[in-house]
Amino acid sequence: MAKIRLGFLASGRGSNLQAVIDQIQQGLLDAEITCVISDVENAGALVRARDENIPAFTISGGAAKTKTEPDIERRIVECLEEHQVELVCLAGYMRIVKEALLKAFPLRIINIHPALLPSFPGLNVQKKAMNYGVKFSGCTVHFVDEGTDTGPIIIQAAVPVKDDDTEETLSIRILNEEHRIYSEAIRLIANKKIHIQGRRVLTS
Ligand code: GAR
Q1: Which of 54, 101, 128, 177 would be a feasible disulfide site paired with 49, CB 3.0-4.6 Å?
Q2: Which atom belonging to ligand 1 lies closest to the Cα atom of 14?
Q3: Contact, 152 vs 201, CB < 8 A?
Q4: Which CATH class is domain 1-106?
């Protein structure tokens, strides 16, 4: 079977991207990352990509902080298509995906989110979960749809919230699980082990 071709969108340090790179290099994930795109110049994710000789691009998202103008999104689509991306992986991408991307890659965009959806969608969710007083939080990999963190859930992992946790210690515990389950979700999709029934993503 041919390697699945991945394109990453990332705004930040890129540790989830790195975890996928590591899995590929260790022969644990049969995939190729064909491009990394960031809306943030010199994002850590771009540096990591360039270190691995992966084509890396900055496409500035425009004036609004979390929205991307349609013509800019079309440039992102063009870049992903030029690199023959089959699966788009959002990894710390802080912009809401809109119509151009969703139409070009239907059910072929996934996201990693640092909470157990549908609880705590949106931003700064480790802190929100802790302040709410939940005893477990975690992370979710889901397909991206037109909502914010609302698409069908592929895989989740739970971690305990401890009494002496700070936002930082909880975030680290969650991030360790993110690094494990993102590759696992990509592996399931690459191996065509996923069936979608309504909102349910079933694995076989
Ligand atoms: C991760 O915790 C990811 O789940 C989160 O940003 C961090 C990126 O870290 N994503 C979101 O909050 C998306 N709304 P990374 O750049 O080291 O992968």
Answers
A1: 54
A2: 16
A3: yes
A4: alpha beta
